[in-house]
Design goal:
heterodimer, A: 3 helices, 5 strands, about 25% helix, B: 6-stranded mixed beta sheet, 5-stranded parallel beta sheet, 16 helices, about 20% strand, binds iron/sulfur cluster
Chain lengths: ~100, ~375
């Protein structure tokens, strides 16, 4: 469960003092906290995400390759968890990406 | 055998294996401390491909597996209460406590929900102000920044019906404990890439120097792991013992400083029991006093629960390399992923579960007609 997976930032916003954004993981989109990498990223940048938090940045080619390898090795539990999680916060916001 | 066949960088992997074999003048014993790496090593058969040159011991790198029994029992006690929504990462639901697990508590009417992120749990608390929302904050340093932020946010937003049951563990004290254990065989370590993405590797430098062991910050793909092993073997053959970074694409020496800072603000170090291993001094994180209002142990009065671990599970021996999972008498008989006796059989990152799936896979290959 320490796996972090790469995705591309499609939007960034300020949520009452917390830098949040939407990240696209090869088709699956999710709200992600970008606070820890806020100084380094802009829309279009690639980040590695663990339990809804970007913990580091990555370049595009690397991100693509990593996602493919993860898929091959059936290590995308993290992505399943994302889509399966009961009540995503974006539902509360009522205005999806 | 299908080792590496469905892996697209198989040729690179094979040449790395040849290189490691050529360089090793004796058999070296290395340990990985990362459930993702354990999964890759066992699934891709890397340990068998390296047989004779390198022995891999699968260390306590799965946070689900090392969460102590008493923390699970505390979770079960809280989750069973009325007006509580107990939230957790999905892989904790089937971890056996003393006499039940979270899934069973849910089946008996407890409100147990899986969340993807601790911020989801906080949002749930905001939506249900008349209920207590508790989040089971487990994990290594990779997860600590997320859990720290959820507590920080709860305070910022003045969410009073949110609390966390903290069972965080940190990797360097576990490495030190393994090296200090009598009869230790580990000669070098692969450190977990995503733990180091947050923390960097400064903490590992004094360990490498004091115990004269190479420590390689390593990713979790087959080629990463083989590169990490190759770097460790080169150091061992050359009589060196340094921290080296194989996973340069995601890890910098100081990690991600804003994440480290938030963890420091919310948590402090504490002694922590590791399931199957016992107490390791200063190996855990707990909430700082100023955040004690968010401590579920205090809020629900469960801080004093202490339990002894069952004898039948040999997780401690497995996680420290004294036994292979297949040498545990319960492996595959009393203990299976469907009916796990111990935590390493629950998570896909647990060593026992990884071995179980590969043993099954090979049995099916050997007798295709049977399936
Ligand atoms: S096989 Fe099961 S009982 Fe044996 S060590 Fe692993 S988890 Fe414990």
């Amino acid at each position: 469960m320490c796996l972090a997976i790469p995705g591309r930032i499609t939007s960034i916003r300020d949520d009452a003092g917390l830098t949040m954004g939407v990240v696209d993981f090869g088709g699956v989109r999710r709200d992600v906290c970008l606070q820890y990498v806020a100084d380094e990223v802009s829309v279009g940048a690639y980040v590695i995400v663990h339990v809804g938090f970007a913990i580091a940045t990555l370049d595009e080619e690397e991100a693509r390759r990593t996602l493919e390898v993860l898929r091959e090795m059936n290590l995308l539990d993290e992505l399943d968890a994302m889509t399966a999680s009961a009540e995503p916060p974006s539902e509360e916001a009522g205005n999806g990406p | 055998m299908k080792y590496l066949e469905e892996y697209r960088d198989a040729e690179i992997a094979k040449s790395l294996i040849a290189r490691i074999r050529a360089r090793a003048t004796r058999r070296w014993t290395l340990m990985e401390v990362c459930g993702g790496q354990t999964h890759t090593i066992v699934r891709q058969g890397l340990d068998e491909l390296l047989q004779g040159a390198v022995e891999m011991i699968h260390g306590p790198g799965c946070p689900v597996c090392v969460t102590p029994l008493e923390q699970i029992d505390k979770a079960l006690a809280i989750a069973a209460r009325p007006k509580v929504i107990f939230t957790s990462f999905g892989d904790m639901l089937r971890v056996p406590g003393s006499d039940s697990d979270l899934q069973q508590v849910r089946a008996r009417g407890g409100d147990v929900r899986v969340v993807y992120s601790p911020l989801d749990a906080l949002a749930l608390a905001q939506r249900h102000p008349d209920q207590e929302v508790v989040f089971f904050a487990v994990g290594f340093e990779t997860t600590a920044p997320a859990n720290a932020m959820a507590v920080w946010r709860a305070r910022d937003l003045n969410v009073k019906n949110f609390s966390v049951l903290v069972s965080h563990v940190t990797v360097p004290p576990a490495i030190t404990a393994i090296l200090d254990a009598p009869g230790n065989r580990v000669q070098g370590f692969l450190a977990a890439g995503h733990v180091c993405a947050v923390m960097g590797w400064e903490e590992y430098e004094p360990i490498a120097a004091k115990y004269t062991v190479p420590i390689i910050v390593t990713g979790f793909e087959p080629v990463d792991i083989l590169e990490g092993i190759s770097m460790a073997v080169s150091q061992l053959e050359g009589g060196r013992h340094e921290v080296e970074n194989q996973y340069a694409r995601s890890v910098h020496r100081r990690g991600t400083p804003p994440a480290r800072a938030r963890v420091q603000q919310v948590f402090e170090m504490t002694d922590r029991r590791w399931r199957g291993i016992g107490e390791i001094p200063m190996s855990g994180l707990r909430l700082r006093e100023e955040f004690s209002a968010y401590d579920a142990e205090r809020r629900f009065g469960v801080a004093d629960i202490r339990v002894a671990e069952p004898e039948a599970c040999k997780a401690g021996d497995v996680l420290t390399g004294r036994l292979k999972p297949t040498q545990c008498p319960s492996f595959g008989t009393r203990c299976t992923p469907e009916q796990p006796l111990g935590a390493p059989m629950v998570s896909t990152e647990g060593a026992c579960s990884a071995y179980y799936s590969i043993v099954k896979h090979r049995a099916a290959e050997a007798a295709p007609a049977a399936q």
